[in-house]
């Protein structure tokens, strides 16, 4: 009986770890909707839960669309990396859909997000379905930091229509998901990036060695491309051409 109780406790503990912080997502959504300047809010659903995405149509006549996947604990209009890219790419021939990924409480670190990767997969699938329902091609994923781990996990484990993968500031947690990815991939990081990115540079390249379309590039920036939006936009949009 004692053993059963222990198992129940462990099971309940693990389950608690895989539930995103929906209250935090709701707060983010309220803030984003109130201050949104570009694009439209689109509510999608995965795991029987609604989540917010931001759709920004292209200024050109195109069917190309890119998913934008943010990093740890933030939202799809985050001022660093995410908002500049989702808007700028719409000016450069891409529809963009920036997706609210699962988040945890502020005191949780990146490792604890591993339990949410399957749920992240389902959100990416839902976003792709939405784009396809609009008659668009989900051609690219452009991701930042922990979002690159979530995106790599999706590409590693799911059948998908994605043709291009941009990973910005990709940390070491993504290494185990790079081996089976064969689509063109840009591994972009900064000379002043965070430690888990800089220390895994060689490991990421080694993991992706079977992908002949893999490119790794270091640029003069930090992890969040502070004061380097123009550089970020130029690097990503040029590579996507």
TrEMBL record:
Signal listed as a keyword: yes
Keyword Signal: yes
Signal peptide: 1-16
Record key words, sorted: Signal
Name this polypeptide is given: DUF3530 domain-containing protein
The organism of origin for this protein: Bathymodiolus thermophilus thioautotrophic gill symbiont
